[in-house]
Amino acid sequence: MHSVRNDGAFELGRKLSWAWQQIIEDSKDPVTRARLQNARIEDWYTAMPLRKGQSPLASAPSYEDYYLDEAAHADDDAYWHSIGMNWQQYSAQTADVPMLHIGGWYDIYLRRTVMGPVKIHLFAASSGTDTDFTAKLIDVYPPSSGYPDGFAMNLTDGIRRARYRDGLHQGRLIEPTTHRPTNGAPVRPFRPDMSPCRT
Question: DSSP letters along 126-160, please?
Fold first, then answer.
């Protein structure tokens, strides 16, 4: 599934911020550009879910549709398997030419350029019917002359929405647990893949 739907969890901030910035850069209307430049995107988080024609993206319908389409497709359905969303699935049908893919330390689309796939095995319980579990792999550097306090570099991270614990094709809510997990409690396994660029 596309990296914006990391194991079912929608990367709201990234997608809304991207569309917002694109409208500012692309808009030929100075009023629209100024309105978005002077507004705070964070204020729109309290107005969720965004609706067509009533969002900050409404002045650019193509960007608004792009954002709302991705937000509406939680399951790993046909939407995510088009060539524009899942090129790897169509690679055999494209030109057979050499390609070099290069990623940076935190390239959201090419995370495996830095390291191989990273997976965790998490056993958890939740009091809700759905929960997002997230994990990070961080390289912690000790203090040095350049960094007297040391620093922590995020190598990769991942997120898994509990409803997609059995696969991304169709979600299934969990049964809430109202007590702290102990021996014999209904603790369920979740396995977030921290390298979401897989098919």
Answer: -SSS--EEEEEEEEEEPP-SS-TT-EEEEEEEEEE
